[in-house]
Amino acid sequence: MAFNSYEFIFIFLPLTYAGFWLLVRWAAYTAAVNWLILTSIIFYAYAGLAGLEIIASEILFNYLIASALVRTEPARKRLRRVLFVGGVTGNVLILSYFKYWNFLLATANTLWATNFNVDQAIFPLGISFLTFQQIAFLADVWSRQIPSFNLRDHLFFSLFFPRTVAGPIVRYKEIVPQLSATAARDFVPNFAVGICLFSIGLFKKTVLADGVAQFVPEAFNPPTAVWLSEPVSLLTAWISVLAYTLELYFDFSGYSDMALGAGRLFGVKLPMNFNSPLRAHNIVEFWGRWHITLTRFLTAYVYTPLVLHITRTRLAKGKSVLHGRLSSLSAIVALVALPTLLTMAVSGVWHGVGWQFVIWGLLHGGYLTINQSWRLLRPRFWPDQVSYDRIMKPLGAFLTFMAVTVAMVFFRATSPASALSILGGMVGVNGVVPHLYENLGFGLSTYLVNLIMPFSWVGILLLIVMLMPNSLELMRRFQPASDFPRETKGMAHPQVIQSSVSVASIHVASVTAYPKLRAALTACTNVRTRGIALNGPTAAVIALTIVLALFALSASSGFLYFRF
How far lies 130's CA from each of 144, 296, 384, in Å? Predict the structure, then answer.
């Protein structure tokens, strides 16, 4: 049941919401939580009973392992380690079987001419996100950060439907303690904030993401329009790749807003998962803004353990480790390049089935390695921080955007060969423009409209991305996510907000010759740092947003991250 579907918006969500708050008001809060668990099970069942059985088995498996860890004395370290490793291994095997088994069989058939039967596999709803969430849960129980829990809380943590399809990947301590904090008096503020977030997200998905999606297949699945050339020309390739980058951007951003809004309707603040990543000045910052909870998971459970293990090994052998600008090449390769590439390879494999996803992950691993290595060594070659920031912040933002866009080719392509063909088109090996209009069945004006329209869409969406406040910034006063700061002072993520403000400041300074434009950009900057009030004008804008989103709902497609 997609968030952008009639049955979810007009049936499931209103009934679930009404039942929850009636139980909060007239019965025990425990009954309201049980209601949410029941409706979340229905949400899973709607996607298929076979998938629900698999999800239920995985949740039960993790509950039993975690219960055994809690009951085992801390002194019995070997037994606890066996339980933890067995639990993690079981989760990985479950995910690997349902997501990758057919891919492995098909690869074997290709490489060794075997004849394995590749059947249509069951892919349980949200199993990738659930698996990582369960692994994090076991890790927190093993490290005794969760000293006790019960079945009800574990079911709520595992099944809560707003985060089911595409995250965020939440930790137990982020949402379970909130179960006792919601009261009937919170009905109005939670409803207002939740509806605002959900409406903004729905508009992003149905109007912006699905609107630009029409231009994506032109290079990735040619030919879909009579004016296109074959093979893919430079303009066609760039139209499609930029369109896909923005489609995925607004698709994932829209889902993240809708998840935050749906959770807030029930008094639960989920962690932020998306915070204007295309404004990033470097690739490290990009991954601190894109799929934030996945980055957090991979850093905590893959990257950091690898770095610690390699560091200890090198120290035991008397080899050098990282020492800032004095770091040796061997230390950088061992402690930066190797763990980064391995971590991002895991990210690529997690995102999708196919070698193109592995390449996508390794590309980002290479980007991150270069960025992290430059951060270490830069003071040796460019010690002046002021001049560095003045030159490299705008240049770094451009390079980051281009690097992300190039990598998106592998993320969207159906195979590495297809991706390489499109990259060839992007550098002009197949010509610059689609074939001449004289060979078509219509005139020059129609040809130009077909050529200009996609660039107009891309240009408008890029302006929205770079200049407009995002939903978290708009709702800052009401803490839209559990880890998003209400104020710009004393915030938990100062580098994120400061970089956002600096981007806007650069734009404001660059248009001093245009007072009205400067005033508009200054207003955007003020909203970004202060947020908006929930008043009459805001309600009118949200109502218009809902109307436009609902008009576009009938033509809306599924969320892209659903297949990951």
Answer: 21, 15, 46
Whole-angstrom distance, CA of residue 43 vs CA of residue 52: 9
Q: Which residues of 355-378 are buried (b: 16+ CB within 10 A; e: fewer)?
A: bbbbbbbbbbbbbbbbbbbeebbe
The amino acid sitting at 501 is: V
Instruction: Report whether 491 contacts 242 (CB < 8 A).
Output: no
Task: For residues 361 and 358, give the distance between their C-alpha atoms in angstroms, rounded to a whole number.
Answer: 5
Which residues, listed in sequence order, are joined to residue 290 by a DSSP beta bridge? 274
Measured distance CA(395)–CA(180) in Å, rounded: 48
Which pLDDT belongs to residue 446? 60
Cα 288 from Cα 269, distance rounded (Å): 19
Show which residues are catalytic: 351
Are 325 and 379 contacting, i.e. CB atoms less than 8 angstroms apart? yes
Tokens of 123: 């892919």
CA distance 398 to 228: 29
Q: At what angle do helices 29-47 and 13-26 cross, to 10 degrees?
A: 160
Asked if residues 234 and 432 have their Cβ atoms less than 8 Å apart, the reply is: yes
Reported as a pLDDT band with limits 50, 70 and 90, residue 509 is very low
For residue 208, give every residue at least 6 positions away whose Cβ sits within 8 Å of its Cβ, in sequence order, or none: 246, 250, 254, 461, 464
d(CA 340, CA 336): 6
Digit-coded pLDDT (tens) for 344-387: 999 999 988 888 999 999 999 999 999 999 999 999 989 888 99
End-to-end CA distance of the chain: 16
What is the pTM assigned to this prediction? 0.88
